[in-house]
Amino acid sequence: PKSKLPNVGTTIFSQMTQLANEHQAINLSQGFPDFPADAQLIALADEYMKKGFNQYAPLGGMLPLKERIAEKIENSHQAIYHPETEITITAGGTQAIFTTIATLVKEGDEVIIFEPAYDCYEPTVELFGGKVKRFKMKAPNYEIDWNIVKNLVTEKTKLIILNNPNNPSGKILREEDMQELIKIVKGTSIFILSDEVYENIVFDEKKHLSICKYPELKERSFLIASFGKLFHITGWKIGYCAAPKALTEEFRKVHQFNVFCVNTPLQLALADYMKDDSNYLYLSNFFQEKRDFLREGLRQTSFELLDCEGTYFQALKYDKISDKNDFDFAQELTIQHKVATIPFSSFYQDKMNENVIRLCFAKKTETLEKAIENLAKL
Ligand code: GLN
Fold first, then answer.
1. For residue 152, what are the domain limits?
2. What is the pTM of this model?
3. Could you identify the atom of ligand 1 that is nearest to the CA of residue 234?
4. Whose CA is nearest to atom 9 of ligand 1?
5. How far, in Å, CA of 285 to CA of 2, rounded?
């Protein structure tokens, strides 16, 4: 058949993980923890399966889990979502993103995204006939110039996609950014998709500013989060979308024909496990230690450490080490130095190369130690 996505290949995450495996390299490319999830959570999953909760969930998700999510959002951001009508459990963050775009975007609609951008946004917009308008955030600070963003808005703008904290740059949005965004959408019918899957991984006492803290933004937003990042279970593929009732109704019309519903026993296990908020409130400290361990280890090398305010990704500029483009450099690092990373150019549609690579530090100390040892030889 004629490809609907002629410019898309296999994702860089799959490519680099495969290359890492082929060459027995330490895999700091695709973002996933190499340490186990909490045994208590696994035991809960086991228990619910044994108790017989093995049939379809309601299409919006299991009520206890939606209730715990509503409580988490209220406690963290003082925002109210009704569990029955405003929260939908999805098969991971990616499905929530896909379904939001499918719900909103029609042929000719324009969607604003910020690059470096997570790889699924643009192709999904394209699949539904949308046109992407991009603002490029650049190394080393990845700042947003909102005057330029304002000029990207036209009467065709349907959606703005945010990713806060940003994967891959680790940048978080400031109060000023949120205020500028409010000014831009005020009086328009623009929707917002806010991908906040790393919301609980923010460092140095900084605060994550969720879209839902701002009533003017919340009313037009689809807020997306992921249990994969929250509980070290990327393979469970469970996340959620919180959005006002009318938006959720439209979202669910698509969701029901996309996956219909999500794994029942795992939803129940997550609901129980979420009752204790210490099961996730430790995350920022936990990952900050790992970030600092990695940064300390690389300080003596010729890599330049860019800021990392959140997420479990550290960006490194390597222009003192090699003049190869980032894709070739990442290949060389994997094959010859046995450390797999992700080239930043994969997050820019025009493959802009700023000689920056991304390292995932959601890894055991011994994994990070070995990677540091290899990178220190460069
Ligand atoms: N979110 C993960 C990352 O950024 C990748 C997930 C995937 O492979 N699709 O590395």
1. 55-277
2. 0.97
3. 6
4. 13
5. 49
